[in-house]
Amino acid sequence: MKFVSTRDSSNVVNFEKSVLNCMPRDGGLYIPKDFADLRKWLLYTNESTTFQSIAGTLTSACINDEFSPIICETIATKAFPFSPKFRRIDNNLFTLELHHTPTGSHKDFGISYLVNSLETILTMKGENATFLDATVGELGASLARAIRGKKHLKAVLLYPRGFVRGLEESDFVWNGGNVLPIEVDGTEHSCHEIVREIFNDRELVEKYHLTVANTANIGRLMPQMFFYPYAFSRLKNQVNGDIFYAMPCGNYSNLVAGLYSWRLSLPVNGFICPTTDEIKVDLAGNCEIMDSIVELEKRGSADPASPSNLERLEEIFGTSALMLKHFVYPAQVTQDEINEACRKLFTDYNIYADKSTSRAYAASLKRSEVVAEDDASVVLVLRDHPALKSEFIHHTLGEAPELPERIAEALRHTHIDRPCVTCTDEVLLIMADEISF
Fold first, then answer.
1. Helices and strands (H, E) in the chain, number of each type
2. Between 69-79 and 51-63, two packed helices, what is the crossing angle to 10 degrees?
């Protein structure tokens, strides 16, 4: 598989370059250029096919021109000591739970896969790379856990003051670890601005071999394609009708990954999501992307600090315009409908649902006309452990789930005993002193 920039069709690279130099100079984002037809293999999978096996096979199918099947299987095995959980909760309603991970976040899947892919590439090349990311906790905790013991990767993590979480003393670069945590005397937005400013300087990017661990990096988004074949392997012998996935939008990475899975010939009939500022429903009830009215050349560069995958979504619909109408089904839901969806999930199925999950379920109820025909089934995607964002649950239900000890430990607050910085120049001075291999 080759990868191409959303802004320049002549900018074609392999997987290695797309993850090491993840922000193209043209300001776009890397996307898969072509897709293998895996329908026969997908139909062969079943309940005994492990997530690691699915991840290894799909990795080999996507990048077999760079890695042998054995290396692809090794990457997947190392990346995924954890797995999603798939459950049937009603005749035509299922859940795909992505929070059975060390930090309780779906981010663990993408970050672990990206780290293990990069470490494999860098080991073969005898080179090194550095992640530069802004975080308020979960991403940093997940990344620190994933790169422990890796010889070719380090991470510079920018936190607002007081938000360092999930790090151990041995993680710090000054103690021989892989992580350089830096507290910024400002907000999360301040941290994002510093990351943007550094990535705007190509000399700095090349000097430190900088990349990111968020979904601006296609290597972070790719493993989210594995979720849907995994769900299908559990569904295929249980249902006879159409299959729809209901999901929160977030930064659209899971939606894009689902559509990429369809391009790999995954049997799926559509994706249901709540409307956002960018994804609307037109007067005919069809999906409409608002950013599409602004030409790419008139937009700013893709954001390395707080990415949106909307540009990737636009490319999919630009390539296959009918998908906009027949694969994505947005629904505008009210706060009352969200609250009622939360209560229904709890009273009917004993599921604690955070606000984003409740919005997705409310959207699926609102688009009941889509799933009413042919005995269709809905898979509700649960991204993160509900206890991570329990305020809404407690307000709506009067009670909330407890945070599991493993997640509380993984996200505990960490004191780094270093001065806060206030600007990009101070960050660069620290990097110059601390980042070496």
1. 19, 15
2. 140
* Average pLDDT over every residue of 311-337: 83
Tokens of 28: 């776009």
Element (H, E) at 43: helix 39-44
Contacting residues for 222 by C-beta, under 8 A, at least 6 apart? 62, 110, 113, 257
Per-residue pLDDT of 125-168, as tens digits, reads: 999 999 999 999 889 999 999 999 999 999 999 999 999 999 99
- The secondary element (H helix, E strand) that includes residue 343 is helix 335-349
Question: Could you give the CA distance from residue 153 to residue 133 in angstroms, rounded to a whole number?
Answer: 13
Report pLDDT digits (tens) over 215-248. Answer: 999 999 999 999 999 999 999 999 988 999 999 9
Main-chain phi, psi angles of 8, to 5 degrees: -150, 105
With b for 16 or more beta-carbon neighbours within 10 A and e for fewer, the 189-208 pattern comes to: ebbbbbbbbbbeeeebbeeb
Most confident of 32-46, 66-80, 347-361: 347-361
Largest CA distance in the chain: 63
For the chain, helix, strand, coil in percent to 5 are 45, 15, 40
pLDDT beyond 90 at 299:
no
So what's the pLDDT on residue 322? 63
145 contact partners, CB below 8 Å, separation of at least 6: 102, 103, 108, 166, 410
On whether the CB atoms of residues 159 and 182 are closer than 8 A, the answer is: yes
In the numeric block, the tokens 């391009």 are attached to 263
Q: Which amino acid is at 251?
A: N
